[in-house]
Amino acid sequence: MGTAKHRAYSFDMKPTIEQVEKNGELIWRIEAAGIVRFHSQQWQAEWLYNYLTRLYNCDETNPQ
Fold it and tell me: What is the SS3 string spanning 22-56?
């Protein structure tokens, strides 16, 4: 039997991180593969962004 070639996430664009205002406070917004996550703590946002960026860079279907 062959192995399936599928990914858990399809990264069409590089992950992004930015600080935005939501409900009157500054929080971090991380977007990747059409999914948006918000974190109030900078370390959480940076950890998730770095993790998603590593996944993006490992995806051989993405142009580098």
Answer: ECCEEEEEEEECCEEEEECCHHHHHHHHHHHHHHH
Q: What is the pLDDT of residue 64?
A: 57
Residue 13 pLDDT: 79
Is residue 16 a contact partner of residue 32, using CB atoms and an 8 Å limit?
A: yes
Q: Confirm if 26 and 19 have CB atoms less than 8 A apart.
A: yes
**For strand 35-39 and strand 25-32, is the pairing parallel, antiparallel, or unpaired?**
antiparallel
pLDDT-flagged residues of the chain (< 50): 1-4
Closest CA to 21 of 8, 36, 42, 38: 38
